């Protein structure tokens, strides 16, 4: 017999996981409820059977009393006793119908695998048609065929469960049957039935069990519904539904008697639901453990020194910007920057360096639960966080144009609403402006395109539409976060040209976030390099190649990806990985990957300090830079 | 044809859905025809009772056409169906189509308001729950919402109906407990049909809203600094509607089935009450006719929801089909 590795989960491990889940509060509740139900079902008829059947003509249709807790029915029988006794029959019928449904569903679900293609397709199609009918209609149809009564109802409800179970099994087997080891088993000549019993069934056991408990809850409800309609259990037998049917007429006299069987049905249904939850938990569908990281120590460091250039009249002024998360991680750790009017500034760094969060903080769009703190953050002279003009003066361009336009709204509408809301335009004016802006970003036949929804646009057109959206107002700053990364190489250049054109025409400043130095070098005048949440170098674009002072910048330049490189392979040539936001934060964060690192680098963090004109660097041993005396690297230390 | 389909995915989608509808209708018609033949024993004898004379049984069989060969019975059945003839009820001797047309309005009078009410309550409720509890805010409120709607979802409609009768017709006699009458008699049946599907749908809407709020295009909308009303109603609502209705589509067909039980609780003179009596009386032609009505109605609802979604959100619906 060929031995094949099968990824089936050994049942012992399921049992193990079940046992563990049973110890949780949920498991304990479910188990207790099951035990209570079982005890009532087994002992109920023995203890209360006589009481439930005793006809007492002196006590007909009584309300609740000490003698009869829930009152009596039209033959003077004790209703409480009858509700208890009915537990057994209700559960029995439910379980039998569940078995019919599950077995039938498994047979029909596995059939396509065993029967070969033609017949298999037929079975799949039949099941597909049957699941479209509402369950109760199916039950009524079958109840007509099988006849009124508990056996007929049991078959009707059981068979009505088959299609949805079969559908589930078919979906699962289809994915398993396509897998490698089943293909291997086929090649090795493992028979169809052996394939099913050894490979398919073990793999679908868990989800099937889960479905069975859920189906049981539904079946219980259907069964009592059918009995309630008078189509299920017939007198003198009685289940909960039948009791409800009998007591409904007396609801004016004794409402509790009519409600009691209903409460029993709901509680039992909830018990089945709990068992299903336990199975689901044990199958590993539990919530992922929250990775609580110890809050990193707030380094008691002095705020980064203010940029030495005069910041008077700058468009954006940010000082000591921090973006933190409730678990204590800090993704942006004290960034200070200025953007002049009309300036094109690049922000580069690896993914996870905090550059995108910095940009989002500048746009006041940091997603929850991120918290933004800053000593100063002004835009055009106002505090950014309370600037009412942000909707028209700040334009955002995001990375994925496929996702950043609303799929349900026409593109023109998404543009024109900006003018309506912020500029007080009428609908017609706003629409005209939207068309005008769309043609400004060279969208052909803009009037027609404005009436289309984003899915009719290509990726490049969408990105241009997003840019046009920013042009609806009078932008003073365009923040573009990886605007070309998701685009085809051929379209990237067009979008970059468009951004440059927007700058010259509107005089807006540009903050371009990218991992791609080639893009930044082409569009920007000045570059900020970010590493592990901090700015490590601030330099003119002209100095980027050959003139960078920070070892990290130099490494980046050495690893410069061209427009054709796969963005995921970026910076592969710098050995090591950047630190995670939660990692210990001591010394220079780049030290583990830096060829020039010394003990000083590992113990004390270099601050971002200015040198030359308008350049800043955070490094103890900057390459080829003439630093002010106080921060000049000490050679003796380097030698140690 | 293949090229036409690839060129216009929507047409392909509509064609596939129409084909599926036709096949399902054919299955429904055939099944309802086959029903009387699937019943073990002699259905006519069972319907008329053991005391009926053999001559009467034979006459009834003849009038039902059961003495014909199976194939010609099927052809006759189809022919009659196209002319809107569904045969005669065994117990009342009235045309089935007449019984159905006199009973259907009462069913629609509670089903349609319930349908509208479900949409009108579930969507605002689910959306506000999502907005109030997004990003892990108001953990307690979230727990209360999910527990309450989850518990309601575990209650079958007819039990809720009994509970509502006990509360608002017996304990506090505000509304009548049974039978069709003035406007107040509609309150409890419609509520019984509404509350549970609305609870289930509002759960779905909440989850869908949370998903939509996390989408990139909602960040774009945030960047536009729109007032909250536009942000949620114009940008979030259409997107979550399509996906919630896809998931909630089943809810509407089961609403139809729910009327069967509710009508029996309230002695409502609709189709649901009729089919139950017909089944107990073994009035097979009547059962057959009502099964056809319910079945085709639910198939048409599913079809309509699918097509509406295909129109509203062509991209995702068609891709997912
Ligand atoms: S401070 Fe030291 S470790 Fe950090 S970049 Fe400069 S030389 Fe390298």
TrEMBL record, chain A:
<dbReference type="InterPro" id="IPR027417">
    <property type="entry name" value="P-loop_NTPase"/>
</dbReference>
<comment type="similarity">
    <text>Belongs to the ABC transporter superfamily.</text>
</comment>
<keyword id="KW-0067">ATP-binding</keyword>
<comment type="similarity">
    <text>Belongs to the binding-protein-dependent transport system permease family.</text>
</comment>
<dbReference type="InterPro" id="IPR035906">
    <property type="entry name" value="MetI-like_sf"/>
</dbReference>
<keyword id="KW-0547">Nucleotide-binding</keyword>
<feature type="transmembrane region" description="Helical">
    <location>
        <begin position="122"/>
        <end position="148"/>
    </location>
</feature>
<keyword id="KW-1133">Transmembrane helix</keyword>
<keyword id="KW-0813">Transport</keyword>
<keyword id="KW-0472">Membrane</keyword>
<dbReference type="GO" id="GO:0055085">
    <property type="term" value="P:transmembrane transport"/>
</dbReference>
<dbReference type="Pfam" id="PF00005">
    <property type="entry name" value="ABC_tran"/>
</dbReference>
<dbReference type="Pfam" id="PF00528">
    <property type="entry name" value="BPD_transp_1"/>
</dbReference>
<keyword id="KW-0812">Transmembrane</keyword>
<feature type="domain" description="ABC transmembrane type-1">
    <location>
        <begin position="87"/>
        <end position="276"/>
    </location>
</feature>
<dbReference type="InterPro" id="IPR013563">
    <property type="entry name" value="Oligopep_ABC_C"/>
</dbReference>
<feature type="transmembrane region" description="Helical">
    <location>
        <begin position="26"/>
        <end position="48"/>
    </location>
</feature>
<dbReference type="InterPro" id="IPR003439">
    <property type="entry name" value="ABC_transporter-like_ATP-bd"/>
</dbReference>
<feature type="transmembrane region" description="Helical">
    <location>
        <begin position="251"/>
        <end position="276"/>
    </location>
</feature>
<keyword id="KW-1003">Cell membrane</keyword>
<feature type="region of interest" description="Disordered">
    <location>
        <begin position="286"/>
        <end position="307"/>
    </location>
</feature>
<dbReference type="GO" id="GO:0005524">
    <property type="term" value="F:ATP binding"/>
</dbReference>
TrEMBL record, chain B:
<dbReference type="GO" id="GO:0055085">
    <property type="term" value="P:transmembrane transport"/>
</dbReference>
<keyword id="KW-1133">Transmembrane helix</keyword>
<dbReference type="InterPro" id="IPR045621">
    <property type="entry name" value="BPD_transp_1_N"/>
</dbReference>
<feature type="transmembrane region" description="Helical">
    <location>
        <begin position="21"/>
        <end position="39"/>
    </location>
</feature>
<keyword id="KW-0472">Membrane</keyword>
<dbReference type="Pfam" id="PF19300">
    <property type="entry name" value="BPD_transp_1_N"/>
</dbReference>
<protein>
    <submittedName>
        <fullName>Peptide/nickel transport system permease protein</fullName>
    </submittedName>
</protein>
<keyword id="KW-0813">Transport</keyword>
<feature type="transmembrane region" description="Helical">
    <location>
        <begin position="291"/>
        <end position="312"/>
    </location>
</feature>
<dbReference type="InterPro" id="IPR000515">
    <property type="entry name" value="MetI-like"/>
</dbReference>
<keyword id="KW-0812">Transmembrane</keyword>
<dbReference type="Pfam" id="PF00528">
    <property type="entry name" value="BPD_transp_1"/>
</dbReference>
<feature type="transmembrane region" description="Helical">
    <location>
        <begin position="240"/>
        <end position="262"/>
    </location>
</feature>
<comment type="similarity">
    <text>Belongs to the binding-protein-dependent transport system permease family.</text>
</comment>
<feature type="domain" description="ABC transmembrane type-1">
    <location>
        <begin position="104"/>
        <end position="305"/>
    </location>
</feature>
<keyword id="KW-1003">Cell membrane</keyword>
<feature type="transmembrane region" description="Helical">
    <location>
        <begin position="110"/>
        <end position="132"/>
    </location>
</feature>
<feature type="transmembrane region" description="Helical">
    <location>
        <begin position="144"/>
        <end position="174"/>
    </location>
</feature>
<dbReference type="InterPro" id="IPR035906">
    <property type="entry name" value="MetI-like_sf"/>
</dbReference>
<dbReference type="GO" id="GO:0005886">
    <property type="term" value="C:plasma membrane"/>
</dbReference>
<feature type="transmembrane region" description="Helical">
    <location>
        <begin position="186"/>
        <end position="205"/>
    </location>
</feature>
């Amino acid at each position: 017999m060929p031995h094949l590795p099968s990824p089936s989960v050994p049942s012992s491990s399921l049992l193990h996981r079940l046992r563990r889940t049973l110890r949780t509060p949920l498991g304990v509740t479910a188990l207790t409820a099951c035990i209570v139900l079982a005890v009532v079902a087994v002992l109920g008829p023995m203890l209360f059977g006589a009481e439930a059947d005793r006809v007492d003509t002196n006590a007909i249709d009584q309300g609740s009393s000490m003698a009869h807790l829930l009152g009596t029915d039209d033959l003077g029988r004790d209703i409480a006793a009858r509700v208890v006794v009915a537990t057994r029959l209700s559960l029995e019928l439910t379980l039998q119908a569940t078995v019919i449904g599950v077995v039938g569903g498994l047979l029909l679900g596995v059939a396509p695998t065993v029967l070969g293609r033609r017949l298999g397709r037929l079975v799949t199609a039949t099941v597909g048609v049957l699941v479209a009918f509402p369950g109760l209609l199916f039950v009524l149809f079958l109840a007509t065929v099988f006849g009124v009564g508990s056996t007929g109802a049991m078959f009707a409800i059981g068979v009505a469960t088959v299609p949805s179970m079969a559908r589930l099994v078919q979906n699962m087997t289809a994915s398993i049957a396509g897998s490698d080891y089943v293909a291997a088993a086929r090649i090795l000549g493992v028979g169809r039935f052996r394939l099913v019993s050894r490979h398919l069934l073990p793999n679908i056991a868990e989800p099937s069990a889960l479905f069975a408990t859920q189906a049981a809850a539904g079946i219980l409800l259907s069964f009592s519904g059918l009995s309630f309609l008078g189509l299920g259990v017939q007198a003198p037998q009685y289940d909960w539904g039948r009791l409800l049917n009998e007591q409904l007429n007396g609801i004016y006299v004794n409402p509790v008697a009519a409600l009691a069987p209903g409460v029993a049905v709901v509680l039992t249904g909830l018990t089945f639901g709990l068992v299903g939850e336990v199975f689901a938990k044990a199958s590993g569908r539990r919530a992922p453990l929250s990775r609580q990281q110890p809050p990193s120590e707030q380094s008691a460091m002095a705020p980064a020194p203010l940029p030495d250039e005069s910041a008077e009249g700058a468009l954006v002024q940010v000082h000591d910007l921090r973006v933190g998360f409730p678990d204590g991680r800090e993704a942006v750790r004290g960034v200070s920057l200025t953007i002049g009017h009309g300036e094109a500034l690049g922000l580069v760094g690896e993914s996870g360096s905090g550059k995108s969060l910095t940009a989002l903080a500048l746009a006041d769009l940091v997603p929850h639960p991120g918290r933004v703190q800053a000593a100063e953050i002004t835009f055009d002279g106002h505090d950014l966080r309370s600037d009412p003009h942000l909707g028209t003066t700040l334009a955002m361009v995001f990375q994925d144009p496929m996702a950043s336009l609303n799929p349900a709204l026409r593109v023109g509408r998404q543009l024109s609403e900006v003018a309506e809301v912020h500029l007080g335009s009428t609908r017609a004016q706003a629409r005209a402006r939207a068309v005008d802006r769309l043609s400004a970003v060279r969208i052909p036949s803009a009037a027609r395109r404005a009436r289309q929804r984003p899915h009719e646009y290509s990726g490049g057109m969408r990105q241009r539409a997003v840019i046009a959206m920013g042009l609806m107002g009078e932008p003073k700053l365009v923040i573009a976060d990886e605007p070309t990364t998701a685009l085809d190489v051929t379209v990237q250049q067009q979008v970059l040209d468009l951004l440059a054109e927007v700058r010259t025409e509107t005089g807006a400043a540009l903050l371009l976030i990218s991992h791609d130095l080639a893009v930044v070098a082409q569009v920007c005048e000045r570059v900020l390099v970010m590493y592990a949440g901090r700015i490590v170098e601030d330099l003119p674009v002209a100095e980027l190649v050959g003139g960078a002072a920070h070892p990290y910048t130099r490494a980046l330049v050495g690893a410069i990806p061209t427009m054709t490189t796969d963005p995921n392979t970026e910076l592969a040539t710098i050995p090591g990985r950047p630190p995670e936001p939660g990692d210990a934060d001591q010394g220079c964060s780049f030290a583990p990957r830096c060829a020039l690192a010394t003990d000083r680098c590992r113990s004390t963090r270099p601050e971002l300090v200015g040198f030359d004109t308008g350049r800043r660097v955070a490094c103890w041993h900057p390459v080829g830079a003439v630093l002010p005396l106080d921060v000049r690297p000490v050679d003796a230390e380097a030698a140690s | 044809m293949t090229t036409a389909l690839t060129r216009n995915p929507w047409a392909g989608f509509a064609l596939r859905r129409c084909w599926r509808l036709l096949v399902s209708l054919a299955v429904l018609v055939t099944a309802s025809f086959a029903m009387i033949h699937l019943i073990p024993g002699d259905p006519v004898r069972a319907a008329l009772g053991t005391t009926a004379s053999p001559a009467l049984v034979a006459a009834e069989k003849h009038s039902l056409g059961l003495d014909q060969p199976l194939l010609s019975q099927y052809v006759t059945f189809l022919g009659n169906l196209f002319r809107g003839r569904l045969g005669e009820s065994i117990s009342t001797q009235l045309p089935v189509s007449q019984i159905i047309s006199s009973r259907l309005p009462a069913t629609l009078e509670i089903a349609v308001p319930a349908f509208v009410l479900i949409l009108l309550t579930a969507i605002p409720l689910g959306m506000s729950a999502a907005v109030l509890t997004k990003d892990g805010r108001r953990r307690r409120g979230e727990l209360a919402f999910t527990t309450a709607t989850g518990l309601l979802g575990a209650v079958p409609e007819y039990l809720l109906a009994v509970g509502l009768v006990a509360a608002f017709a017996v304990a506090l006699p505000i509304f009548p407990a049974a039978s069709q009458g003035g406007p107040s008699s509609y309150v409890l049946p419609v509520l019984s049909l509404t509350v549970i599907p609305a609870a289930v749908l509002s759960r779905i809407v909440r989850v869908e809203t949370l998903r939509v709020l996390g989408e990139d295009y909602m960040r774009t909308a945030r960047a536009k600094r729109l007032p909250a009303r536009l942000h949620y109603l114009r940008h979030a609502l259409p997107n979550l509607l399509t996906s919630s209705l896809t998931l909630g589509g089943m809810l509407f067909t089961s609403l139809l089935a729910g009327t069967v039980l509710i009508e029996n609780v309230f002695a409502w003179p609709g189709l649901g009450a009729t089919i139950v009596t017909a089944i107990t009386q073994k009035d097979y032609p009547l059962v057959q006719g009502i099964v056809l009505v319910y079945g085709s109605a639910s198939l048409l609802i599913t079809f309509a929801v699918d097509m509406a979604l295909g129109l509203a959100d062509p991209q995702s619906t068609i891709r997912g089909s």
